[in-house]
Give the backbone structure.
Amino acid sequence: MGAGAPGIQPIRELASLTNNQVTTMKFQATVLLLACPLLVWAQNGSFTVNGKLNGVSAPAKAYLRYGAGPAMKMDSSQIQNGAFSFKGTVDKPMPATVLIDRVGTGFSNRRPISAETIYLEPGTITIASPDSLDNAVLSGTPLNTDYQKLRVAVDKKDGPTLERLPESDPAAADR
């Protein structure tokens, strides 16, 4: 091969680096590698909840309650043409409650407020219903999709229920 062969020049340039330059490059590479998980973590905690309840409109309000103890959070969203939305971040997946106040005046012991459990996790969570939370279908993220499948299985009259699953019946395990 001649002196101008491709691939030879970069090798010569690397060989001519000083120890100080090599140390600087190693430090920069290490900082970059250590920062990558932080970037992934910052992006992964974001959630969006999009709801659509046909037939429900202003002055109705939707509420999202999540967290525990002093970290309990409550957010609200005006329902317009059946649609509402929440955005936020969570450190880890957690259960939350969506509440619907059809009157839009807040909570009261004198009238019922619809409630549905969802799981907050990174991604977009969808709640869709032809009329109310009672008939809502959850989708969009793995936990909520699985939770919806569980709800359907438990709600089926002739389907398996938690009490009838073999794992919950010690006698069934012996068969």
